[in-house]
Design brief:
It contains four helices and no strands. It is mainly alpha-helical and 89 residues long.
Length: 89
């Protein structure tokens, strides 16, 4: 990172900017959405009320769940440390 960029980026106590932390958390949410979607497709039975509208609302609920779960699995923290360049504890 050049000195000009480094001087304009606000750093947190751990040396990771809030922008990097947000991107890492967003990445974790995308990863969790993919994982939840894969678990849904692995279902062995067909639901009685399965239809495209139900699938759409289920996908929206899964995305919301993934967003709320993001940050709790540690993927975002590891990614933020790697992007931010701070060493492992």
């Amino acid at each position: 990172m050049t000195d000009a960029i480094a001087s304009t980026a606000p750093a947190t106590a751990a040396g990771i900017t809030p922008e990097v932390r947000k991107v890492a958390k967003d990445f974790e949410a995308v990863f969790l959405r993919q994982m939840i979607g894969a678990m849904r497709t692995a279902s062995l039975d067909d639901g009685l009320f399965d239809n495209s509208a139900g699938d759409q609302f289920r996908d929206m609920a899964d995305a919301r769940l993934a967003d709320s779960m993001a940050g709790g699995f540690g993927i975002a923290d590891l990614l933020a440390r790697q992007i931010g360049g701070t060493p492992k504890p």
